[in-house]
Amino acid sequence: MITLYGGLRSRASRCAWALNELGVDYQRDLLPDGGHKKPEYLKINPAGKAPALKDGDVVMSESLAINLYLARKYDNGLWPSSEADQAAVQQWTIWAACEAEPSALTIAVERFFKPEDQRDEAKAKEAEETLKPRLAYVDSQLKGKKHLVGGSFSIADINVACVLASTMITNVDLSPYPDLKRWLTETAGRAAYTKAREG
Ligand SMILES: N[C@@H](CCC(=O)N[C@@H](CS)C(=O)NCC(=O)O)C(=O)O
């Protein structure tokens, strides 16, 4: 049985989303009470962060890398068949981690996660300025398209949408990017993602 480690509001939900889409059985350890710093978990992920995944002999961390592994191993269409599309999936995944996540996370921290009296709107605005051309880039790539790679839903959609989903609840103005907004609303609105965050 696969074990996914990490709480419902952590990045583990990215991987639960992929597992739910793949229809693979798994158990979830929510790591309550600071479980991510406990010695038994540090054997699974010495970095002391969530998520981690244990699938037989495979023990790994990094949410988006876990998703690539799962999509390839338990492929039900999430992992594209052509080499060109597989390359595009990897490109989008690295893009999400390097180009989108730092700014999206800063905005979420400063507008959502921190207690109200500790939030720094100037930092959030600065991050939003950084994110804008990147949102425009995704928008341009989705013109007339339902999905990021090939003609069907793939792990690229999950890996990019799970990073950008927070923009929908952190007052980021998505109106200049109608194709991105349409795609993000549809993709992050999938039942498998809702289930991932509800347990
Ligand atoms: N790049 C990592 C980030 C992992 C990460 O920072 N996870 C957070 C939870 S969402 C965590 O474990 N934070 C606790 C800590 O840093 O001590 C990934 O995508 O898996």
Q: What keywords describe this structure?
A:
binds glutathione; globular; Glutaredoxin; 199 residues; 8 helices; alpha+beta; single chain; Glutathione S-transferase Yfyf (Class Pi), Chain A, domain 2
Query: What structural class should be given to the helix and strand makeup?
Result: alpha+beta
DSSP E strands, number? 4
Q: Which band does the percent of strand residues land in?
A: 5-15%
Mean pLDDT: 97
- Overall 3D form: globular
Summarize the biggest pleated sheet.
4 strands, mixed
| Ligands (ions, cofactors included) | glutathione
The termini sit apart by 17 Å
Compute the number of structural domains: 2
Radius of gyration: 17 Å
CATH topology of the largest domain: Glutathione S-transferase Yfyf (Class Pi), Chain A, domain 2
Order of helices and strands: EHEHEEHHHHHH
Named CATH architecture of the largest domain: Up-down Bundle
* Top CATH class of the largest domain: Mainly Alpha
Describe this structure in words.
With 199 residues, the protein is of the alpha+beta class. The chain has two domains: 76 residues, 3-Layer(aba) Sandwich (Glutaredoxin); 112 residues, Glutathione S-transferase Yfyf (Class Pi), Chain A, domain 2, CATH 1.20.1050. The chain is 54% helix and 8% strand. The protein is built from eight helices and four strands. Strands 2-1-3-4 form a four-stranded mixed β-sheet, with helices on one face. β3 and β4 form a beta hairpin. α4 packs antiparallel against α5 and α5 packs across α7. The chain is globular. It binds glutathione. The site of glutathione has 11 residues, from α3.
